[in-house]
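Summary for the steering committee. One of the milestones for this cycle was to obtain a three-dimensional model of the protein with magnesium ion bound, which we needed before selecting residues for the alanine scan. The sequence and ligand used are listed below.
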Amino acid sequence: MSIAALIVAAGRGTRMGIGLPKQYRALAGKPVLRRTVEALRADSRIKHIMCVIHVDDHALYEECMGEDFSLIHYPVTGGATRQASVLAGLEALAAFNPDHVLIHDGARPFLSTDLLDNIIDGLQTHQAILPALQVVDTLQRVDDNQLCLTTVPREGLWRAQTPQAFQFESILAAHRTVEGQDLTDDVAVARATGMQVTVVEGSESNFKLTTEVDFIRGEIMLSKLMETRTGSGFDVHQLVAGDHVTLCGIKIPHSHSLSGHSDADVAMHALTDALLGAIGDGDIGAHFPPTDPQWKGAASHIFLEHARDLIAKKHGRIVHIDLTIICEEPKVGPHREAMRANLAHLLSLELDRVSVKATTTEQLGFTGRKEGIAAQAIASVELPASVRGL
Ligand code: MG
């Protein structure tokens, strides 16, 4: 069974009354539409994904999707109505000859695995599937003066969601038949041509981002879906003849210097490895090979900033860093606050999220003999957890 997904994202978001169409607004650091696409892309049963976008939004779309997006076809430009947009998308998807299509709102990013399972399972035995929720509130018909007229029985009333799922040829034919009308969803199109549509249980979390409150609700849901990762780092550099050491980017006059390919800032190296460890992205040597001449004498804040940027790219957040510098000399204490301030500045962290500690090894071992300086670090990083299975 070949399944395609058509994401309708051609609306202007006029109901929100703000500049940017809501499907391109950031939700916890990532555009809504990209979240929607990622939810569908994570399902290996869906072989093709296509978005229908507004004619003015091609630049916004490209910015939203970024690079390296497999399964996503070039977007289709929508029409004057939702119905016209869906028809344009279906005509474009016809080139891939899918058996079934899921037609989904671009502003519903919280699409769970369970809901997709229910919908796709339903397609095995039914022509068309609508995820929907039974109305539980009492319904009142109200006049223009906000006076209640009648209580509307809620029995048999359901709230329609998306993705609405169809046999591809049937829904394409239905859309062609009713072309030019302005039906509000694809179930209405299907029903207008006599198709049977079966309801499966929708999901409360699969709501459409429409109002400001919806965005706040979405942000809260995502914040509860952050997971905390911990990374550790360790580094050693040798002390050789010289006149200063650099620790946490602070130049400290000393009778010796640290030797290394870069500026040998052992503390920043341990910290960089801790950050890379938290996101499972190798170590400092993998990102900045010591054999590469361009890093000779390099200031180590470059390495730290690279790790910081990798975390930001994953929409993560550094929660806390804790660094221990292990040496007999120089004394770290007088420089501790300058080190913390520099790290806090480089990582855009509040000062109380940055800890720098120092210890000796009681004159034991290589650090005790002042042959080198060691540093170890722990970093806590929050990363977005997958919304699948929500
Ligand atoms: Mg090092």
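Key point for the committee: The domain at 227-384 is CATH 3.30.1330.50 (60s Ribosomal Protein L30; Chain: A;).
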